[in-house]
Amino acid sequence: MSSLLVDGIGELVTNDPALGDGPLGLIPDAAVVLVDQQVAWVGRADGAPAADGRLDAGGGAVLPGFVDSHSHLVFAGDRAAEFAARMAGEPYTGGGIRTTVAATRAASDDTLRATAARLRAEALRQGTTTIEVKSGYGLSVADESRSLRIAFEVSPESTFLGAHLVPAEYAGRTDDYVALVCGEMLAAAEPYARWVDVFCERGAFDADQSRAVLAAGIARGLAARVHANQLAAGPGVRLAVELGAASADHCTHLTGADVDALAGSETVATLLPGAEFSTRSPYPDARALLAAGATVALATDCNPGTSYTSSMAFCIALAVREMRMTPPEAVWAATAGGARALRRSDVGTLRPGARADLVVLSAPSYLHLAYRPGVPLVRQVIHNGVVT
User: What predicted TM-score, i.e. pTM, was given to this entire model?
Assistant: First the structure.
């Protein structure tokens, strides 16, 4: 076994109130000891045990690695022109997904693999140590299977999203496509997936179709998550709660009943402010969710069309500025909240026994993540005990 002492920490975010002050479990003048791939000890630096090696945080804040519980990294092509058109006033309808589907189907495995690896490395440099990766730009048996295979190479948190949109060759035959997704496509993709997801939305899949997809995935041992209520109020959130989904993602348009359903369940409301930023859409009402007692996570929704960012720090800043979350709420949502959305207890926290994933900031406090938006504050990342 090898051990590493991280000291010189001006402020440590543990996300464990039993270890420090407030909901973030803050410890000033702190240290952390890592043994192999786990956190072995946390506390005040003057009580730290000896270790084989040492990393000086230089007075910077240290927090758990970000947990990005919603991303789409397996794709080809570029939709910068679509983004420019939206900025010029064209509304977002979801139809641009088909552009990425065409490019993804035409791309080689090596091209898809290179893009996914590049974006994963980009996210890691910015402090994201755990990331979920979806398929959804293949929409054929062969292309969804290879997309999941590549997603699984990037992260064990891989999600089958064959029900992202109805492909052009199935236009007017949505039920036939749903049957394909629930049958042959799911069978081909399932060996590489932990999760099943569906875009329950107008222009995509209705409640019955979405329920069929999720039920088929659950029957094969996959856990559920749902793209819900992004473009309009609809059945997605309540379907997620009904089926015990780990997360309902987007939650942009919620009724009071939706908020109550989330608050009374274990389903996490995962908010994706990068999508609202990139589509000039209304932001989710985070305050209503938090006031009701719902669990809230933040994620990037990194994708080529509507949120082409891999920066969790940027999403934290958006959440504070645009969704009126407090900095502690936003940081918790981007770490422990994301872990809840992935049903993980080993990440998103820095308590003994957790995975050795942590971020060192070139700033004295986590507050600077929102206070200094757009500034690359992540100085060092430790992922699975390895200093990157």
Answer: 0.97
Residues 291 and 370 grouped into a single domain: no
Amino acid identity of residue 254, one-letter, is L
pLDDT at 94 over 80: no
Residues 121-166 have pLDDT tens digits of 999 999 999 999 999 999 999 999 999 999 999 999 999 999 999 9
Distance from the Cα of residue 372 to its chain's centroid: 22
| 359 and 318 share one domain | no
**Best CA proximity match to 15, nearest among 361, 336, 339:** 336
Same domain for 240 and 154: yes
Average pLDDT score, the chain: 97
Q: Which domain covers residue 354, as residue numbers?
A: 3-64+349-387
Q: Are residues 211 and 299 in the same domain?
A: yes
CATH at 327: 3.20.20.140
Share of the chain above pLDDT 70, in %: 99
Q: Please indicate, yes or no, whether residues 256 and 375 belong to a single structural domain of this protein.
A: no
Rg of the chain on CA atoms, in Å: 20
- Given a cut of 70, whether residue 95 has pLDDT beyond it is no
Confidence (pLDDT) at 251: 98
Residues 130, 252: one domain? yes
Same domain, 49 and 168: no
> How many CB atoms sit inside 10 A of residue 203's CB?
12
Percent of the chain at pLDDT > 90 equals 96
Which runs of E-coded beta strand occur in the chain? 3-13, 26-35, 38-44, 53-56, 61-64, 66-68, 128-131, 133-134, 158-163, 195-200, 223-228, 247-250, 268-271, 296-298, 358-361, 378-383, 386-387
Closest CA to 167 of 95, 75, 261, 69: 95
The set of residues, in sequence order, having a beta carbon less than 8 Å from that of 78 and lying 6+ positions away, is 304
Query: Are 381 and 360 within 8 A, CB to CB?
Result: yes
Instruction: Identify which of 343, 179, 153 has the alpha carbon closest to the alpha carbon of residue 162.
Output: 179
Are residue 137 and residue 165 in the same domain, yes or no?
Answer: yes
| Contact predicate 252/284, CB 8 Å | yes
DSSP tag of 303: B
Please state the φ and ψ torsions of residue 358, each to the nearest 5 degrees.
-150, 160
**Identity at 95, one-letter amino acid code:** G
